[in-house]
Every structure is written in structure tokens, then in C-alpha cells.
Amino acid sequence: MTNVSIAASFWVILIGVLIWVGAAWLCWANWRRSGKRRAVGFLETLRFLLVTLIVATLFRPEFVQHIKRTENPEIVVLMDASASMSTRDIVTTNHATSRADWLAGKKREEFWKPLEKSGKVVPTDFSASSSPSPADGKSPDTAPGTDATNLQPADDGTDVNRAIELAAQQQRNLKAVLLLTDGDWNLGKSPLVAATRLREANIPIFAVTIGRETPVPDLALENVAAPSYGLFGEQIAIPFKIRSHLPREVRTEISLVEANWDEVKKEIVIPPLGEVQDAILWSPHAMGDAILKLKLPVQPDEGVAENNEQEFHINIRDDKLKVLVVDSLPRWEYRFLRNALARDPGVEMHCILFHPEIGMGGGKDYLPAFPGTKEQIAGYDVILLGDVGIGGGELTEKDAELIKGLVEQQSSGLIFLPGRRGRQATFLNSPLADMYPVILDDAKAQGVGLQNESQLVLSTLGRRHLLTRFDSDENLNDELWKLLPGFYWSAGVEKSRPGSEVLAVHSALRNSFGRMPLLATRAAGTGKVLFMGSDSAWRWRRGVEDKFHYRFWSQVVRWMAHQRHLSEKDGIRMSYSPETPHVGDTVFLQGTVLDSAGYPAENETVTGKITSPKNRTERLEFSALEGGWGVFKSSFIAQAGGKYNVQIAAEKNRRNLETEIFVRQPLREKIGQPVNSQVLREIASLTGGASVSYEDLEKIVQKISLLPEPKPIEKRIRLWSSPWWGGLILFLLAIYWTGRKLAGMV
Q1: How far does Cα 84 stand from its chain's mean position?
Q2: How far apart are the first and last CA of the chain?
Q3: Among 194, 195, 236, 512, which is least packed, fewest CB within 10 Å?
Q4: Strand 487-490 relative to strand 448-454, pairing
Q5: Which of 691, 668, 675, 697 is nearest to 89 (CA)?
């Protein structure tokens, strides 16, 4: 059945009729005025036809065609088979069962049977991890009036929107959609997008929420941020995050398990319905890949035990770090720091002493001059600048430029350890000015001395930072810092610079910006910078010898050099950021190439390739960074979780390196989470359906069975916006103006 309708308002129709009547009178008058010539009559008739078409366009005419449906009505039953359905929160008479088990029981009962009387039923599982299989466990033709298929998203997770869209696309006479899920969609677009399209087609969605709206009583080990590698002989901090859905405080022990070795345990206190972020310390026992597992004991009232442990690996190496210590006077901090680094088996130390009275210092591990070329300085992982500055027979502007390039492009670390001479003020007019983590007080260039002993007070960040960690227990660590011997002198600091992280402040001095920051870090390019505003850490040795002083500087050196040694081989090394990437992250690669003499390579071409966990290989394009440091950069996007194999090669110097980067797959399907009933209610409301809890499944099935037959399909063709309609008007206008030219009317 086809008819024509118009969609214009009354006033538009009235104006159009007046225009049409006026045009008719004008055309008739022009024809009479011309003596009723035949050519003029033809042209005026054509003009009247054009006006009629234009007026008709204002009326917005449409052809409306009603197509009667001939196929049987179809009802699609979408059933969630994702991992989140493993949550055990369905309470029956005598025990709790999982959402998946409850749904499986209903499927065995074929709960959709009452719907087969009113049409064809299509039960369908949608899942990201299970293999395609008929939803009822039978072949599609075993149940009269039913058809079973399986919709599989391509990635781990649940895409409810895609499942609804595919159901609408695959059925010709869709009457309704019955959606049984916990509402935990974590892939694709919002389900409201598909619901909007079904609303336009007058297809209702009936949603059944499976599960409870409050979290399952549970402790979840949500995240373990272990470093990709560690050095043999050092203590490695492994941060973790635990979330509690228990209404009580939990005192327990978290365990770090390594095969054939004793467990490392740490006592933790988890607040009710809260979270804990902490770290556990681990000392490697051998070099190579260490496979570790962090475990949280299962509580008696927990509903989910599967999320209480995570396995990860750390590559243990025996690298030797090169440290350069530059100072002027052999103050106490310099002497004890030099001794601590010299005794560290993982450190190769060199010293430069610009003594203002007797000249350059000499002896074992001393250098006669500052390494003044890129080739000489490129091998250092960390540089410590004490009470020295620019000029005065000490460092030069060129030296400062070299230090800046080493930190920013070679991922090295820089430590500022000022002294009473106030020489650090000269750096503020050098290339190192922007690298300072703090803003120095110009009025107190030689620092501040007090008669009473002061202490370093850890900030919130400092209490859990690796540099300031003397004990794995955060509270005990804070108490240890309070018991450390204090200091009487400190550098003059105004405030921290934006982007810096303050780890400790002065216990007594403050200004309009707050307490004076004395221990602060800052990122500079690919490297790190540390400011230590007190030169009295050597006093921590009182009564305990090197226990805290040695450990502090050992942790500082290893933390600052960590990024530089992510992956290396003779003459070539590669670092990457982030160190523990997740799926979807852009991973930035930085390769440093040295020539046969150990100098930064010049005019080199670096190529690479990367192989994904799915054995897909792609070429990496490396571009050289300006500055002549032999640095090349590239990047890739981690599309999947797992192990990526990265190979880079420098053709001219015959350097090559192969390494592995582990990309973490985010856990989209979380067990124990509450249902997302809000989005299901919105879907049902938008399409004119209904949303109920799993207890009312039979009621919703009965309601669907009473739905009327789908209305005939209404197909509208909008003439007024059709290009053919506009083309016809333009064609007639061309004939009209050509006729006027031929008739001599123009």
C-alpha cells in the first residue's frame, strides 16, 4: 500500500497556495499581454509548472509505503557468557551459586518455551572467551521453532552493543530482544547506541539483571606493578594494590612466593570497604628470569578466591653502574659517600675534587679532569654534583651542556648535593637551570644554619618511595626516619618547581609556600634528577655504621640508573617507556648506539622489527635525535597482551640487540563486581521494554509472549530532499531560460 503525505505546517501550506495562485494569474496575464503567442504560452506554462514544483517542495511531500510482514515474528534471547558471570552472588534456598550456573540451569529448562507459541525464538550466547556453540547445547534444528547461534566479540571482554546490533541485523522480522546479563559491558560503544536504533524500529528490549547490586564480600589483589628487571644483590620493591569489599578490618600477611625458596611475607592492615597501596621487598637469589607469585590469603567470608594472587616475572642481571662524584672541599658527606660507593660491588665510581686551595685531588679512582667530551662522559649512569659550580676553575658551560645531554638523551641520573660555599647558585645561569627540582632562595645562597638539630620529615609520597624506604612497613619506615640523627645546615630553598616530586621537607623551616623541600626528584628528558638539600646524611651512621647511609645512596644510584639498563648488549642499549605497558599504550623505544671505540655513533642507520604475541611481525622505523649522542627513537602501539620480541640493528657499526617487552592485558572481566543494572534499565526504558531482576524471569517471559504482532514496515521516500527531484527542477529551469532566449524574450 502506497500513498503520499506532506509534512508542512498550516501557514507554510497557506503561503504556498497564495504563491501558486499568484503565479497562475501572472502567467495568464503575461500570455494575454503577448497577444496569446503560442511560444509565450508554452514558456508561461513551463514557468507555472516550475512554480508548482517549488511550492510542492515547500510542502515536503513523501511517498509512504506500508509493507506487510510475511515472515514469522522472531524473538532473540541474548545470554551473557562472559567471565564476569562466574561471580557467585545468586542466593538460593540453601547455598550461593554463580551467575553462569544459574543461567545454565535456566537454559537446560528452556525457559523460552512459552515464547515459541508467538514466534521463532533465537537463543544466543554472547561472549569473548568461550568458543562458538549453540546456546541450548543442541543443534539448531533439534528444537522446533528455535534457532541457536553464537556471537563472539574479537577481544577479551563483553560488547553488549555489538551483540544487540548483530541480533537486529541477522533477523528479518524481529519482534523483541530478551537480554540476560549482569550489565558488565567493557568493550565497544555504549549499549544505548544499539538501543536507539531498535527504538526507531519499534523493537523493545527486555532486560533481566543476573546478580546483586552490591559487591560480593571479597578481597581483590587488583594490581602488581613489578619492574621488568632488577640487579643482583639489591632489594627490589614490588608495589601492589588491594581492594576490600569486606565490611570489617582485615589483618593478614601477603606472601611473595618463589620456587625452591622461602616465602617473603609482610603484614598488612586493610580497612573495611577500602584499599591498600603498598610494596613488598624482595632480594633475588640468582640471575636470570625469576617467576614470582604474590598471594593474599583467602578470608573465611570471601565470596571470590580467584582474584587473590597474581603471577609475574622479573629479569635479574648483574650490571655494574658507573658513578661520577664531583665536589670541591672533602667535607664529611663527600668522604663517607665516596667510601660507601667504593665498597658497593655493583658500582664503579670515579671522583673529581676541585679543591679551592690545593687544586685537583688525586689518588685511587680520581680523575685528573672532568670528562669534557661526549665520548668520555657517555658511559656514566649517575653524576653527583656537590659544592661545585660554573667558573672559578671548576665546571664550564660546555661541561654543563654535556651533563644536560647525558641526562636528557642517555637516561642517566643527576644528583645535586649543595654545600656551604653556595656554588650551586652558579648553575641557575647555565644549561642546568631548568633541571633543578627546586627553586633556590637567592637571599640564602650559602644556606641556613641552625643551632638546634633538625630532621628530614617524609612527605606522603616519600613514605612509600623506593629512595626513602628503609623498611617494607610504611609506618615503621616513617618511624625510622624520625629516629635518624638530624642536621644543622641546609641549602636555602624557596619552593619546589612545578612537576617535581617532594619526598622530604625541613622539620623546622617554612615560608609562605609551606615547609622547605629538601629532598625532591624531577624527570628531565629520559633521565632523572635528585636534589638533596642537606649534606649531613653521614650522621645516620651514628651507632649503626653504614646501615642507613649506605643503603640510602645505594638505592639512589640504582633508582636513577634503572631506565638506562632496561636492555643492553655490547655497544648498544635500549630503554622503553612505560616500563610495564598495558594493552593500548604507546610504547616509546630509545636506542643508544656506540661505535667500535665506545663513542656515540654518528651517521648511523638503525632498523628494527617487532613480533607480537600473535606472531605478527612489523618493521620499526628509528629516527636519530639531534645532539650527536647516538640516540635513535621509535614507538609502537601495544595491541595485545603478552610477550613482544623487539630486535634492533645498527648496520654501519654492526650492532644488534634483541629483547622482550611484556605487555599486560587489563583484566576487563572482573569477578565479584556488582551488576550494572542502571544501563539495563536505560536500555529497556529507551526501547519501550522492561527491566527486572533474575527472580522475575518468568514474569518477563510472560509479558513478551503477550506482545502484539510487529507493525507493517513503513518505508518513506522523501521527494523534497531527493537529488532526482532537485535535478528535475534544474532541468526544467534550463529549458525555460533557453526557450526565452530563442523566443527573443531576453
Answers
A1: 21
A2: 47
A3: 512
A4: antiparallel
A5: 675
The residues, any chain, with a CB within 8 Å of residue 299's CB and separated by 6 or more, are 219, 246, 250, 252
Find out whether the peptide bond into 239 is cis, omega within 30 degrees of 0.
no
Q: Say which amino acid occupies 350.
A: H
Give me the sign of the Cα torsion angle 394, 398, 404, 410: negative
| pLDDT mean over 663-689 | 86
Quote the cell numbers at residue 690.
522492561
- The pLDDT of residue 386 is 93
Q: Three-class SS of residue 282?
A: strand
Q: Tell me the backbone φ, ψ of residue 283, rounded to 5 degrees.
A: -105, 120
CB-based contacts of 80, cutoff 8 Å, min separation 6: 99, 103, 125, 126, 127, 158, 180, 181, 182, 184, 210
User: Would you call 707 helix, strand, or coil by DSSP?
Assistant: coil
d(CA 101, CA 78): 16
Round to whole Å and give the CA distance between 253 and 267. Answer: 4
The pTM is what?
A: 0.66
Average pLDDT, rounded, for the chain? 84
Q: Write the burial class of residue 218 (CB in 10 Å: 0-12 exposed, 13-18 middle, 19+ buried).
A: buried
Confidence check: pLDDT of 57 > 70: yes
DSSP string, 456-508: EEE-TTTTT-GGG-SSSSHHHHHHHHHHS--EEEE--EEEEPTT-EEEEEEEE
Task: Identify the bridge partners of residue 244 per DSSP, sorted by sequence position.
Answer: 219
pLDDT of residue 437: 94
Looking at residue 344, what is its pLDDT? 86
